[in-house]
Write a structure and sequence with these properties.
The complex is a heterodimer of chains A (308) and B (653). Chain A has 308 residues and is mainly alpha-helical. Chain A contains 14 helices and no strands. Chain B has two domains: 43-297, MetI-like fold (Orthogonal Bundle); 332-434 and 479-652, Rossmann fold. Helices cover 51% and strands 12% of the residues of chain B. Chain B has an eight-stranded mixed β-sheet, with helices on both faces. Chain B is elongated, with a radius of gyration of 34 Å. The N and C termini of chain B lie far apart (72 Å). Classes of the chains: A mainly alpha (308), B alpha/beta (653).
């Protein structure tokens, strides 16, 4: 039941998102065709651009055309390369996903472990060091961290390639750099929720059984904390997809983020529209998925759903 | 965006209200009392000064190109070196501070001025206004923030002003959502509902009550958002879509330095450093503000432990009176036990010299007001006192002849496994909500036993049957929330009994249950005790329960047992004035039937600020300011077959 309710609330959001992205071209102050053609263009040139962008069609036809462009290669082509936008996007998507998923996984692992360490000895040396590191991780501009890593690991030490996406080694630096933020977030989250759980009687019930402190912590306390971590993981994953805009520029990875930045600086409106639409759809689906997973993981909410 | 989410999702303002400091100076004082706050505030002030005076301080013209001196290393003439056009990097950073921080200030103000009124409006008008605002927020939050900012820049074109709008628009939903959540909970406060129903005008309620109460939360949010806005805005600059050259801005400077990272890394070092430290400064300040305005994040407010260690006072020297030897054969034997909580003021003693014995098969009830130390005592005997909170400063605890203090982890687990079972007041908290009852029982049965899976399951079923849960086989796969309160408490008892403990510790096991269930649980406990010959330590505040259920009773006041002995002896004629007062205030006491219930005069004692002499003196009706009561803590004496700590106990005989 919850699944349908949640899906039901996602659909209007998706519709509104698509409308917003569709009207993107109309929001540009002035005539987009005029802007694209440049100040010296003749009226015929402007008119041909208008035709290319489909600006002369009635609104509803244009929206239908826009939606068709999501799967139909002929419906939308890049203004600069004249290749189908769908093709441009799908070529680059794997690179973006590899970096985002890799970064999230590393961040999740590092963050959870450091969060546990903090919670084990609050106020201890390790806690203080990790707290400082998480603050630094949250405050660090990842483009600067990326540049520093390129300089140190690629230029100085020569261990890893600096830019590109041809071998697995090319992905190591971007993944590590992009993992800093989720690592910091998870570390805080896990530490806070573990400390909150520490005072709970059920941990003492478990201790009285004669279980080891490690088992009490990992099996009883962490299990509850990780349910909260799932929804944060969803937000972080979306954030990392967005962050690809910057990371891919720093590391010269041909991905969707890079494509979007190039399209913005060259005013390639069809590519901008569909790239943004794709990011937004991803974001909505991830939020949907994490909501459903969280719901399912917690037996209390799982049952409420069954009951209704 | 997640920094903000953590703020937005935990407004908890209903409790926050009690903590909201009254004056600005209080805020400042609390801020600088935290290391985070003082460092953050100092850095933020420095950065703001830099933004104001930076351009005037720049030693050289930040725009003058000098092709004879391009890409110079840092030197005395050019502290941070020169860039690809021969411009002085140090001067450009000073001049760029205004644009960089200005974008942050502009973006946050833009978001604040649009988002907060929207959020307050949504909370105030409810209905369709709220629905529309929330739906719009949903849609805006469907875009990753930097992607949304990019879209705005793509529409408006790349410039400093448009970056402000872009990063501002991105933060509107965060402000609107938080403002709505906080306003909603403040509007639900009884005193505000009252003034609305008295006809106060909406504008007045919002100005007088809502805004002052949400301002702290919004200030925290703005500070934290400032850090992330700064980073997004500079990110746009880095991508070449922000402030346009030749105007300096730290992100744009970083973007320009990218081509020279191989040969001239220092070009990227300084703008990046200034950027990172400014974000750090605002994050530190925001975190410090959050600990002031959001009580759910108290943890961060706790002073670092090493400071504690410096401050910690030694425990008050325990009287070195020779302790009596533990009673042979006792299931539990406690001698001269003293315990103290760690606090900012040092150690606070909560248990002040307790002696007790429980023989196998008997039930000792410890009775007292909340705060008397009875639960702390129970946890210590159960080896479950949290060493980070409370320490045993003197005395001994023996369980079945083995010392329960200072054990190595393995020995401690073994002791818990073989000898101790524990039942808590609230069964709902004592069971792990995300594990099935079967998983939790199995764990207890399996620990330290070598039964195979089928035997373990059979034992679990038997245990549930023992505590009178019908259909145990099916119930094993259910979660705690699927049981009623009484059933949950039975399950907790089943877990406690799973390892055949010698001692069962029960901390107010029935006070969360209704009366009929209480009786069933007590009967069950007694039955289990008879079958297994366990000793039971029962902590309660209910004297009637003691009379019906316990063999021995010990009355606890301010960390000491002031009267203890057989239930029949003690309750037949109470000698200590505190026990008498408890008796008189308990409903349904044998001699008190039909009389008015009395309350105990005066305030319960403050731990750490006990009166001189007898701790009960200020509330005592017998003392009448006799000098002996002021002079010393009364010794525990044997009077009329029970132990009692009152100088004038004989007066009641």
């Amino acid at each position: 039941m919850f699944v349908f309710k949640r899906l039901g609330s996602a659909l209007p959001t998706l519709f509104a998102v698509s409308l917003l992205v569709f009207f993107f071209v109309d929001l540009i102050p002035g005539d987009p065709a005029q802007i694209l053609a440049g100040p010296t263009a003749s009226n015929e040139e402007i008119e041909s651009i208008r035709k290319f962008l489909g600006l002369n069609e009635p609104l509803l036809t244009r929206y239908g055309q826009f939606l068709r462009g999501m799967w139909d290669p002929t419906a939308a082509t890049s203004f600069r390369t004249h290749r189908p936008v769908v093709v441009e996007l799908s070529e680059r998507l794997p690179n973006t996903l590899i970096v985002a998923i890799g970064g999230l996984a590393i961040g999740l692992i590092v963050g959870t472990i450091s969060g546990i360490v903090c919670a084990l000895r609050p106020g201890g040396i390790a806690d203080m060091v990790i707290t400082l590191l998480t603050l630094a991780g949250i405050s660090m501009p990842i483009y600067w961290l990326g540049l520093l890593c390129i300089w140190f690991f690629a230029v100085n030490l020569g261990w890893l390639p600096a830019a590109g996406a041809t071998t697995p080694a090319h992905f190591v630096l971007p993944i590590l750099v992009i993992a800093t933020r989720p690592a910091a977030m998870f570390s805080r989250l896990v530490a806070t929720s573990l400390l909150e759980a520490m005072g709970k009687d059920y941990l003492d019930t478990a201790r009285a059984k004669g279980l080891s402190e490690t088992r009490v912590l990992l099996f009883h306390a962490l299990r509850n904390s990780l349910i909260a971590a799932v929804s944060v993981a969803g937000v972080q994953f979306g954030g990392m997809l967005g962050g690809s805009v910057v990371t891919e520029t720093v590391f010269g990875i041909p991905g969707v983020g890079r494509l979007l930045v190039d399209a913005v600086s060259r005013a390639d409106y069809p590519v901008i529209q569909y790239a943004i639409l794709m990011f937004a759809f991803f974001f909505v689906f991830i939020n949907l998925a994490t909501d459903l997973i969280t719901q399912w993981l917690d037996p209390r909410t799982r049952d409420e759903e069954r009951a209704t | 965006m997640s920094v903000m989410n953590t703020v937005a999702s935990s407004p908890a303002p209903d409790r926050a209200l009690d903590f909201v400091p009254k004056s600005r100076w209080t805020v400042l004082r609390r801020l600088v009392s935290q290391p985070k706050g003082i460092v953050g505030l100092t850095l933020v002030v420095l950065y703001l000064l830099l933004a104001i005076f930076g351009p005037a301080l720049a030693p050289q013209d930040a725009f003058r190109q000098n092709f004879a001196q391009t890409l110079q290393r840092p030197s005395a003439a050019h502290w941070f070196g020169t860039d690809q056009l021969g411009r002085d990097v140090f001067s450009r950073i000073l001049v760029g501070a205004r644009a960089t921080l200005g974008i942050g200030v502009g973006g946050v103000s833009f978001a604040f001025l649009i988002g907060v009124p929207l959020g307050v409006l949504a909370a105030w008008r409810r209905g369709w206004v709220e629905a529309v605002v929330m739906r719009a927020i949903d849609v805006m939050l469907s875009f990753p923030d930097i992607v949304f900012a990019l879209a705005v820049v793509a529409i408006l074109g790349a410039s400093t002003q448009n970056v402000i709008i872009a990063v501002g628009v991105v933060s509107i939903p965060v402000f609107a959502r938080t403002a709505r959540a906080v306003t909603l909970s403040i509007l639900a406060e009884p005193y505000i509902e009252g003034s609305i129903s008295l006809g106060a005008s909406p504008a007045r309620v919002i100005l007088r009550h809502v805004l002052p109460n949400i301002s702290g939360m919004l200030m925290t949010l703005s500070t934290l958002l400032f850090a992330s806005t700064l980073l997004s805005a500079s990110g746009l600059g880095f991508l070449g879509l922000g402030t346009q050259p030749p105007h300096p801005e730290w992100g744009t400077m970083l973007g320009e330095s990218r081509s020279y990272i191989r040969s001239h890394p220092y070009l990227a070092t300084f703008p990046g450093l200034f950027l990172a430290v400014s974000a750090l400064a605002f994050n530190l300040l925001g975190d410090a503000l959050r600990t002031i305005y959001d009580p759910t994040s108290r943890r961060t407010a706790r002073p670092a432990r090493f400071l504690d260690l410096l401050r910690r006072k030694r425990a008050p020297a325990a009287p070195t009176a020779a302790l009596l030897p533990p009673s042979p054969g006792a299931a539990v034997s406690v001698r001269g036990l003293r315990m103290a909580y760690h606090s900012q003021e040092g150690l606070l003693e909560v248990v002040r010299g307790v002696d007790l014995d429980i023989m196998p098969g008997r039930t000792l009830a410890v009775v007292g007001e909340s705060g008397s130390g009875k639960s702390t005592l129970l946890r210590a005997i159960g080896t479950l006192a949290n060493p980070q909170e409370v320490a045993v400063t003197a005395g001994t605890i023996e369980i079945g002849g083995e010392s329960a203090l200072g054990l190595a982890p393995e020995a401690l687990r073994d002791l818990r496994r073989r000898k101790i079972g524990i039942v808590f007041q609230d069964a709902a908290n004592a069971l792990n909500p995300v594990l099935t009852v079967g998983q939790q029982l199995t764990e207890a049965v399996q620990t330290g036993s070598s039964l195979d899976a089928a035997a373990v399951r059979q034992r679990c079923i038997d245990l549930l049957g023992d505590v009178n849960i019908s259909d145990p086989e099916r119930r094993l796969d259910m979660y705690p929330h699927q049981f009623s309160g009484g059933m949950k408490q039975r399950i907790v008892i089943a877990i406690a009994l799973a390892q055949d403990p010698d001692v069962l510790l029960a901390d107010e096991p029935t006070s969360a249950l209704d009366v009929t269930i209480q009786q069933q649980i007590l009967v069950l406990l007694r039955e289990m005790q008879r079958k297994r010959g366990m000793a039971i330590l029962l902590v309660t505040h209910d004297l009637n329960l003691v009379a019906r259920f316990a063999d021995d009773v010990a009355v606890m006041y301010a960390g000491r047992l002031v009267e203890s002995g057989h239930v029949a002896t003690v309750l037949a004629r109470t000698l200590h004035p505190y026990t008498q007062a408890l008796r008189a205030s308990a409903p349904g006491g044998a001699e008190g039937r039909g009389k008015r219930l009395l309350t105990i005069a005066g305030e319960p004692p403050m731990i750490g600020a006990l009166p001189s002499g007898c701790a009960f003196r200020p509330r005592c009706q017998r003392s009448q300011n006799r000098s002996q009561c002021f002079a010393e803590e009364p010794a525990i004496r044997l009077v009329a077959s029970r132990q009692v700590a009152c100088c004038f106990a004989e007066e009641a005989c």
